[in-house]
Specification:
The chain is α/β, with parallel strands linked by helices and 419 residues long. The protein is built from eleven helices and twelve strands. It binds pyridoxal-5'-phosphate (PLP). Pyridoxal-5'-phosphate (PLP) binds next to helix 3.
Length: 419
């Protein structure tokens, strides 16, 4: 690193110190919540044996479900390594609780790309008998609470609320804001099921959306709650009668929550959850550093380093395709795995635009590990998330800044006051 860049890095680290310090009470509180859960559920090492065949009497599987249920303050939970991804988990959740002829309404605008592809497919209604509508976000990129209540119809069965911004130019929704939306919906019709896509949000705040009134939350185990070590999986938590229906949608009618062999080493799922608040904290620290450094370097960032956070995603507006490509390549190059690979923009299943994805991860595609994704479109926002250690994120980000300077894609102009 040149001395010139060093000055920026030192200023960024100084500026973020109080912000990092302010994260500590939440990290401790979430650790405490999880530790208490392990104690209350009396987890023992015989719960780590797994099971075969039908998986009857799999105490470890049952305990993992009740542990998640307790930690998310819900009646029940379904945690399974054979949920392929967040998308799979959310889709099975919807299929489990919405009946033909009923309507799903996304109240946070267009949902995450892979879900948008499901709902936008031409034969969606014909094939599943479900209706889908979305309420656009307002100009500020937030849901218009009044218009939500007005848009509900007598056939609306499920309201979909996405906590994290995904690849959108909008703010992520805090648990408090989610609570306001849920209250409006329930005020109009208490029977509407409020499902929160909790991806990237777990353990960033002290409360989770169930505590704000949501009926169901769902997420991926190769993001936050897997603690960086879960090899696959997803979870859904919420009302008990709904969880049973979702398990039947995943398995078969009659084969609900009490069946299914655990073939994955269950210890990793437990231990990943235990480590999750720490790993989320490392990712947050990395995101906060990235935000401040790139802001000092003259880029627009979202959120800013000292803004309240509800997820681990950090967006940086790179402005030019060359900068985006260079940035992605260097994230890949700084990774422990597949550092020799050059990321190429591609059309991926479930995504409508070309996306460039950089991730050199131990678990394939795990975005709680340091990774970046960007749709190839102006103004070239890149969405960065994860990082199993702060030091690793910092090393990569500083290296990226230096390379952008070396390649003439970034010119340093000190805006940090007296030096
Ligand atoms: C990651 C993510 C999903 C699900 O993505 P998968 O790759 O299927 O796990 C859904 N919604 C949001 C907001 C996400 O960040």
């Amino acid at each position: 690193m040149t001395n010139k860049l060093l000055k920026f890095v030192e200023k960024a680290e100084d500026d973020i110190l109080p912000v990092l310090k302010a994260l500590e009470p939440t990290i401790t509180k979430n650790h405490s919540k999880i530790l208490t859960g392990f104690r209350n559920q009396e987890i023992t090492d015989s719960n780590f044996q797994g099971s075969t065949g039908y998986g009857y009497g799999d105490v470890g599987r049952e305990k993992l479900d009740s542990l998640y249920a307790e930690i998310f303050r819900s009646e029940a939970a379904l945690v399974r390594a054979n949920f392929i991804s967040g998308t799979h988990t959310i889709w099975k959740t919807i299929l489990g609780v919405v009946n033909p002829g009923e309507e799903i309404i996304s109240v946070t605008g267009t949902p995450y790309d892979t879900l948008r592809s499901i709902f936008a497919s031409r034969d969606f209604n014909e094939k599943w008998g479900l209706n889908y509508r979305e309420i656009p976000l307002n100009k500020k990129g937030t849901p218009e609470i009044d218009s939500i209540a007005k848009s509900l119809s007598p056939t609306t069965k499920l309201a979909f609320i996405q906590r994290s911004k995904g690849y959108q130019d909008r703010r992520s929704l805090t648990v408090k804001e989610i609570g306001n939306i849920v209250r409006q919906i329930k005020h109009t019709n208490p029977d509407i099921i409020c499902l929160v896509d909790n991806c990237y949000g777990e353990f960033v705040e002290e409360r989770e959306p169930i505590e704000a009134g949501a009926d169901l939350i769902a997420g991926s185990l190769i993001k936050n709650p897997g603690g960086g070590i879960s090899p696959s999986g997803g979870y859904v938590a919420g009302r008990e009668h709904l969880i049973e229906k979702i398990a039947e949608a995943l398995n078969a009618p009659g084969l609900g929550t009490s069946m299914g062999a655990t073939l994955t080493d269950p210890r990793i799922l437990f231990q990943g959850l235990f480590l999750s608040p720490r790993v989320v904290a490392e990712a947050l620290k990395g995101a906060i550093f990235t935000s401040r450094l790139f802001e000092l370097l003259g880029f627009e960032v979202s959120p800013r380093y000292d803004e309240y956070r509800t997820d681990i995603v950090q967006a940086v507006k790179l402005g030019r395709p060359e900068t985006l490509e260079c940035f992605s390549e260097l994230i890949q190059y700084s990774s422990p795995i597949d550092s020799q690979v050059k990321p190429e923009p591609a059309l991926l299943p479930g995504y409508e635009e070309e996306i460039i994805m950089a991730a050199g991860t131990f678990v394939q595609g795990a975005s709680i590990e340091f990774s970046a994704d960007a749709p190839l479109k102006s103004p070239y926002w890149i969405y960065i998330q994860g990082g199993l250690s702060y030091e690793y994120v910092k090393l990569s980000i500083v290296n990226i800044a230096q390379e952008l300077i070396n390649k003439g894609l970034l010119r340093l102009a000190w805006q940090g006051g007296n030096s």
